[in-house]
Amino acid sequence: MNQENTMKTYMKINEISGIEGNTAVAMGTFDGFHIGHDKLVMTLLEISKNNHLKSVLYTFSNHPRDLLADVKNQTKLIISPEQKMGILKKYNPDYLLFLEFDDYQKNIEAEEFIEEILIGKLGMKHIIVGYDWRFGKKAEGDVRLLKTYESKGFFKVEVIEPIRIDGQIVSSTLIRKYLDEGRVEKANEFLGRPYELYGHVVHGKSNGKRIGFPTANLSKETNYCTVKEGVYVTLTSVCGKNYKSVTKVGRNVSFDDNECSVETHILDFKDDIYGKTISVKFLSRVRDQIKFNSLIHLSERIKKYIDFAMNYFENIYFKEQL
After folding, report:
1. Which of 69, 120, 135, 292 could form a disulfide bond with 298, CB atoms 3.0-4.6 angstroms apart?
2. Are 100 and 10 spatial neighbours (Cβ–Cβ below 8 Å)?
3. What are the backbone dihedrals phi and psi of residue 125, each rounded to the nearest 5 degrees, phi first?
4. Is residue 287 part of a domain?
C-alpha cells in the first residue's frame, strides 16, 4: 500500500479538480468490501506503481440500486458508508472518489462517462474493474465496451475475475444470504474479516442486569444487514480494545418482548459505557433463540453460553490467529 499519507478525497463529482498527470482507476460499488474487492484495489496499487500512474479509487457512498428502489426495498448494507470509507482509506490511494450515486451518474450515457469523466476529468490510462462491472445509463456500460476503447488505444483494461471458495463465487449477495442464515463463519471467510456491527450503547429494559448478566444494547441503522436471530460468540470493541463477549440478536422471547435488539454481554467487564460507540464482531453461532419458563433456567443457559464462548476463544479463535 502507498506509505505516504497524501491521499485526497472527493465527495462530489463536480468538485473533482487538480488531478495532474495520468491515472489508473479502479471502480466498484464495494458492497460489504469482501476479498474480491481487496484483490481489485491491490491490483490498482500495483499497476499504478509499476506504470508510474496516480491511483484513483472510484466508489459510492450509497448503493446505486437504492436510487431505483423504494424505502422498503433498499439494499441492506453489510457495512456502513463510514466503515467502507475507513477500509478504503487504509489502502491510501492517491485519490479517493467517495461519491454519491445520483441522477447524473444514473443517467449519463456510458460512452459519455468514459470520455468526459474517466478520460477527461481523471486522465485515465488504465482501468481496473470486476468481471461483472456495469455503469452508465441503464447499466449499458460493461467490460466489452471498455475493451473497445482499449483496442483503439485510449487506455488499458484489467479485469478481475471472480474468486471462488468451495466452488461458489464470492459476492455480496451470497454474504447477505449467509448472514440471514446465521452462517457467520462462512460470511467472514468471504469478507476476509469478521462481520461487524457498530452502534451507540443505549438504555434497554435491563433484563440481563436483573439476572446477573448485564448487556450493552446496541443502536443500529435500520438499513443495516443483520444476522439471523440467535446467540453468537463475539468480540466487542470498546475505545479501541477488544473484549470477549456473547451477543444475542433478536427478540427477548423469555420476557415476551417482540422488539428486535442486539444485546452484548461483555465478559469480565464492568465499565459504564452508555452513550459510547462500540463495535461487535461476530465470530461463531451458538444456537437459535429459545424461550425459558423461568429466570433460573435462563440464567443457567447463559452460563453455558459463556462457557461455550470461553472454550471457543481458548481452543479455536486464538489458534486461528497464529
Report:
1. 292
2. no
3. -120, -10
4. yes
